[in-house]
Write a structure and sequence with these properties.
Elements (H helix, E strand, L loop, with lengths): L6 E6 L4 E7 L5 H19 L4 H15 L9 E7 L5 E10 L2 E9 L8 H15 L5 E3 L6 H9 L15
Parallel strand pairs: 5-6
Antiparallel strand pairs: 1-2, 2-3, 3-4, 4-5
Helix pairs in contact: 1-2
């Protein structure tokens, strides 16, 4: 597909909120990966029904497959989400897949949540996708993550599959 612009800024027309996606620098990758691993593990513990130990093992396997030897694999696009002042407020990661783009992660710092910045970051992601020529984007969201599910639905994302589970006593 190619490469998007190294920085994308898209205003959210519903609110006067802007974010910028800045491509991750090579020297930032180790810290970025550490933060992404923590986010991934916490998400699986909070919403995915895994114990911390299970989530950490899954994270190790998945990150090694997607970042062999801690290096960025071809087709991955890693960004720092910045606010209008240029301060880093989150991370965004998507990858090229045969159907289009897969959004692996979007995470904003707790201190900035609830201000419309997640919506603005999603709009910036979609602008990147268009620049790359993608016709389709997809993502996974855990059922218990009501805030994220609501955001995605408000942006026009539709459920395509639902996995259900039940703990037995």
């Amino acid at each position: 597909m190619g490469r998007p612009a190294t920085a994308v800024e898209v205003p959210d027309r519903r609110r006067d909120v802007r974010v910028r996606l800045r491509e991750l620098r090579d020297d930032q990758l180790p810290g970025w990966l550490d933060g992404m691993r923590r986010f991934y593990v916490d998400d699986f513990v909070r919403h995915g029904g895994l114990t911390r130990e299970e989530a950490e093992a899954k994270s190790d396997r998945d990150h090694e497959a997607l970042f062999p030897g801690g290096e960025q694999a071809s087709g991955n696009h890693l960004f720092v989400v910045e606010d209008e002042s240029g301060e880093a407020i989150g991370r965004l990661w998507f990858a090229e897949r045969p159907f289009g783009l897969w959004l692996y992660a979007i995470e904003l710092d707790e201190r900035v949540r609830g201000r419309g910045l997640g919506r603005a970051a999603m709009l910036a992601f979609e602008a990147c996708a268009r620049q790359l020529g993608a016709k389709r984007v997809a993502l996974n969201v855990f059922g218990g993550n009501a805030v994220a599910r609501s955001l995605y639905a408000s942006l026009g994302y539709a459920e395509e599959a639902v996995r259900m589970g039940k703990l037995l006593e």
